[in-house]
Amino acid sequence: MTEPTLGAVLDLSDTIVALATPPGRGALAIVRLSGPAAHDIARAALDRWPEQPRAARVSVVRDSLGEAVDEAVVLRYDAPASFTGEHAVELMTHGGAVVPTTVLAALIARGARLARPGEFTRRAVLNGKLDILQAEATGDLVSASSHAAQRAALRQLDGGLSRRVLALRDDLIALEALIAYDIDFPEEDDGPIAPARISAAADAVVGALDRLLATARAGELVREGALVVLAGAPNVGKSSLFNAILGQARAIVTDIPGTTRDAIEAIVDTPTIPLRLVDTAGLRQAVDPVERIGVEVSESYLERASLVLLCADSAETLAAAATTIAERTRAPLVVARTKSDLAPVSDEALAADLRATGARAAVAISAESGAGLEALVQTVVKVIVESGGEIDLDAPVLTQERHRFAVATAFAEASAFRDVWTAGEVPAPVAAVHLRTAVQALEDLVGRVDVEEILDEVFRRFCVGK
Predict the structure, then answer these.
(1) What's the pLDDT tens digit per position in 181-207?
(2) Phi, psi of 390 (to 5 degrees)
(3) How many angstroms separate the CA atoms of 169 and 164, rounded?
(4) What is the value of pTM for the model shown?
(5) CA–CA separation, 242 and 277 (whole Å)
(6) In whole angstroms, what is the distance from residue 152 CA to residue 149 CA?
(7) Superfamily for 229-388?
(8) What is the model's pLDDT at position 233?
């Protein structure tokens, strides 16, 4: 039988169950149960039942034949005071491969259905416990790979972005109300609302949408990390610098030029934004076909970089790579003068590097001793932020393409209304269509309307049990 899609199985009369912790060896596992029969199903499998909600109780769990399979800590939640808004039970069992599985089987045998990815959070949305933006933040929080991503997700989970979007929606509706007189009484020459007041209100909401749309870059940096490419001539210490920043040997380091044949990526967490650090093959005219492919990969990364670390161990190797790099990227440059433990680099030499390359900064570093590494990372973050504008993670930011598209649509429609209203090109009812489309775009974003395709896309990436 074909497995139904998540959108096709939203029968809230089902009681669902799943393992909410990663499978495998561990001290504890959590089995989560939610739905109208959650209490009855769990009570049938337990020797002892919590008499009060949110009060832990230790109980033996038994399978459908009455055999004990584990001793678990049981928490009961009564609707609507649960994550999903339904009756729910959580069993903290012993970990491992067998125990959680047998507990799951015991609950399924008594009538529960195995949950699909994101189904718990989806029920929370359908039951009004979360909106779609908060649900997405739940997934972002689970998958966060940096402090910045964690911070942005928590802000969104708290409803910061939702409140901002709904406030803009209310502003658009208020603007609709202002032109209502012109729609209802088109024959009147002078309505109660001056056209200039409507234009000013339109300017204000368009400006607010534009400012929110501008946060999409910060959201992309938070989610994906700023792409920082280590580039330079072969054997100048790029891989050693890459390993030193990470604090572990991820890249092969030898004295043989051309050792790095492919790009190696790693995330470097910083308090401001995560950095996607990429070690690339040395830039030179390669004869070996495999090395040539590595150089081509390096060049493709240069084209997409947020910042390029131009690595060189001398003025000569700097000059050898600077022109090639400048031809392949528009990203800002920071010079990393490597191997400073072998040949100390003076301030005058760093100043000369800046003049020769047009870089934003130059830092002398030693991968061997660690000197200059912290200053280099701080400089990289500073240049990235200065290049793209200040990043305020305490303010609402658009963290996904779906967010950007919806706000961009609202911005375009509000701008179109402002333009045709100011020019007096069309009647008020026609101009108002732009406002209604803008409102609908923002309502789609927070889930004020039931759009199954949006829900399916949001929860498709969730893990089972969440």
Answers:
(1) 666 555 555 556 677 888 899 999 999
(2) -60, 140
(3) 9
(4) 0.73
(5) 8
(6) 5
(7) P-loop containing nucleotide triphosphate hydrolases (3.40.50.300)
(8) 82
- Quick count: other Cβ atoms within 10 Å of Cβ 212? 23
pLDDT value of residue 261: 44
241, burial (CB in 10 Å: exposed 0-12, middle 13-18, buried 19+) = buried
The answer to whether domain 145-215+398-447 and domain 229-388 are alike in fold is no
H or E element that contains 221: helix 216-224
The pLDDT of residue 1 is 32
The CA dihedral of 208, 214, 215, 219, to the nearest 10 degrees, is 150
Helix (H, G, I), strand (E, B) or coil at 160: helix
In angstroms, the CA 161 to CA 215 distance is 11
Please provide the distance, in angstroms rounded to a whole number, between the alpha carbons at the two ends of the chain.
25
Q: Tell me the C-alpha distance between 233 and 5, whole Å.
A: 51
Q: Alpha carbon 350 to chain centroid distance?
A: 37
Q: Please confirm whether the linkage preceding 429 is cis (ω < 30° from 0).
A: no
Give the per-residue pLDDT at 181. Answer: 64
Can you give the pLDDT at residue 262? 56
Q: Where are the domains of the chain?
A: 6-131, 145-215+398-447, 229-388
Look at phi and psi of residue 180 and say left if phi exceeds 0, alpha if psi is from -120 to 50, else beta: alpha
pLDDT at 327: 81
The CATH number given to 145-215+398-447 is 1.20.120.430
E strand map for 291-380: 307-312, 333-337, 361-364
C-alpha 77/C-alpha 90 separation (Å) is 8
SS3 302: helix
> How is domain 6-131 classified at the CATH fold level?
Gyrase A; domain 2 (3.30.1360)
Which residues does the chain have with pLDDT short of 70?
1-10, 181-193, 248-263, 281-298, 388-390, 393, 448-462, 464-466
So what's the pLDDT on residue 412? 96
Residue type, 326: A
Q: What angle do CA 309, 314, 319 make, to 5 degrees?
A: 70
- Residue 408's DSSP bridge partners are none
Give the CA diameter of the chain: 85
- What residue has token string 């590595």? 294
What is the model's pLDDT at position 236?
A: 84
Q: What are 209's strand-pairing partners?
A: none
Contacts of 82 (CB under 8 A, 6+ apart): 34, 88
Return all residues near 327 (Cβ < 8 A) that are at least 6 apart: none
